[in-house]
Amino acid sequence: MRRVLFFLLLFIAAPAVAQPVRLYDNALSFDLPPGFRPMTAADMAKKYPSQQPPQHGYTDSDNLSVTIVATRNVNPAHTPDKLKTFGETVQRSIGGRTGITMHRHGVITIGAAEWYALDFAAQTADEPVENRLRIGVRQGYVVVFSVNAVTRLFARREAELQRVLESLKLD
Question: Which of 26, 67, 102, 129 has the fewest C-beta atoms lying within 10 Å of its C-beta?
Answer without folding.
Answer: 26
